[in-house]
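Table S5 (text form). Sequence records supplied for joint modeling of the two-component complex.
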Amino acid sequence: MGKNKISKSDPTVFGTSENTETLRWNSGELFLLDQTKLPLVVVEEKQESVEQVWHSIKQLKVRGAPAIGVAAAYGLLIGIREQTALNLKEFLWEIENKAAYLESARPTAVNLKWALIRMLECSKTYSGNDSRGLFKQLEEEAILIHEEDVQLCQRIGVNGVSLIKEGMGVLTHCNAGALATTGIGTATAPMYLAHENGVQFCVYADETRPLLQGARLTSWELNKAGLDVTLLTDNMVAHIMSQDLIDLVITGTDRVAANGDVANKIGTHGVAVLARHFGIPFYVACPYSTIDLNTGEGKDIVIEEREAEEVLNFGKRRTTPEEMKVRNPAFDVTPHELVTGLITEKGIIRAPFAENLLKEYL
Amino acid sequence: MGKNKISKSDPTVFGTSENTETLRWNSGELFLLDQTKLPLVVVEEKQESVEQVWHSIKQLKVRGAPAIGVAAAYGLLIGIREQTALNLKEFLWEIENKAAYLESARPTAVNLKWALIRMLECSKTYSGNDSRGLFKQLEEEAILIHEEDVQLCQRIGVNGVSLIKEGMGVLTHCNAGALATTGIGTATAPMYLAHENGVQFCVYADETRPLLQGARLTSWELNKAGLDVTLLTDNMVAHIMSQDLIDLVITGTDRVAANGDVANKIGTHGVAVLARHFGIPFYVACPYSTIDLNTGEGKDIVIEEREAEEVLNFGKRRTTPEEMKVRNPAFDVTPHELVTGLITEKGIIRAPFAENLLKEYL
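The corresponding structure-token record, covering 724 residues in total, follows.
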């Protein structure tokens, strides 16, 4: 298999569709689907170095909190695989060094830190004295993190599927789908299971500027799986809700604070306010790997501010005058008061969130 | 002056900046700035036929309710100027025919119909028997409609300027600026006057997908005039409001119903709900030419649904999979309960709107 494998997603592109998995660990090599090129081009990139993994995360080639976590775990292996000749002490230092480096890629999604901490703690439990043996133990841990992520998505799907009833319109934001995880997604998990169960419902995906994860990723993966999906611009949500077309909102999240405040892709807070205004339940699909009990409330979550170019352009086409000031917060915080429930792998957690999150996760 | 005059708006384009007026009537010729090309290219187009004017309106080369009205009045002249050899009865029939044709260009903005009805009623008051004389009378009426529009903007500015106080953040949506009118705009009128008066304040413009009037038009004209403007994606509004950066919202409108319900660019309803949620006053700048007492309430207003391509692409670049379903309502309706006040040429009209609109305008 060549380093870069071009695949066809649409008949209008080229070749035949091959691997569309978010990421793959195969014979000690890490392959990441380049999500910046979707939906017109489906291509994965073999990650040759930990620097490449860092850039893949930073540039959103791989994105979505769970996917970032799994990618980082494997990325750490990439960063240390050439160092197994070091003695154990020096090897452990390399592991910490590379983990800290990977963690610096993006600040908001807690899964990144969570996965790296798991890898670090795993390294501390190693009882041997051979760096190659420690590498193997870490590889097993990364694979465990990966497999667990798949299961977390499945369980979120099972716990949320009954929310989706016949004839409903379900709104989602950004991409919290298969592309954001290594399984069937978080927000999309109940959708995929309901669809498998033969429930007829519509999904509305808002396109999610500036990087259009809703248009390019969500509409692509849901459409490919045969779900009924309609694309909206972000500003259409109130109108569509006012027409009684939306019965349920499910989004993903990048970090849930101890009080239930939810950090997610910019625009989520607005969707939650609108859902409350129109009397529509607003659920957040959330594996435990995205819950951060060390962060008390939403205002303590670091909101990544990204480059102005993402707003000033659309694709690569400039839409604004030179020297235009912009804001580009990539996330916002939805206060827990606007959240109907968190769909977790343990079940649906409802208010009071501080109490119930502690009860389930401490 | 050549038929198409290319001008430079940015140093990065070409030539030197010349005419940037929304429209011009000069020696019996109508010139419309092609707003689909802004901000990167500033070019006006001489309207050779009434069909060209219809297409200019349909394709949003000229847009903004007041500008559409004035353009239609002049467009009617273009449509009949070759027919002045007809006898009066046949000429009147031509006038009605061309007016009906122009009215069909777009359904939502009431100014289009309003301006054409004014021209028709003017034609009925003609006391001569010479078609050329009627043409001249109609030309004077079109010029009157144009000059009045300039004055309406100015008076809206004067009536709204005191809303903008030192240090405020003012949010606007779409483009209700000079480019949407033949004067200093409607929503922007108080902003331009406050700026002239030396008030220091910031404007936040949300880009307004799908056609990006906020990014391409509002940010361009405000920036050119030296105002402090920051561009947002539409989905950032809740977050920016939650950071206490917005003290006031002013938008334009395409049609205000008798009960005060406001039809405006898609996304306005959402902004109004968010403003209400965050306790921010929400004003709508509205000349009488946009008030439609014949329409009882918002649900009676026809919402134009435009081509899917506008959502599926941006500037000719495809961002979504083939065969993706979209919605593209170009407007939404903000219920009067969410409106703090209508800034009109007569003053600020507040609730109860049905009663107060009748009082001012019947």
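Note: Chain A touches chain B through 59 residues (CB under 8 Å).
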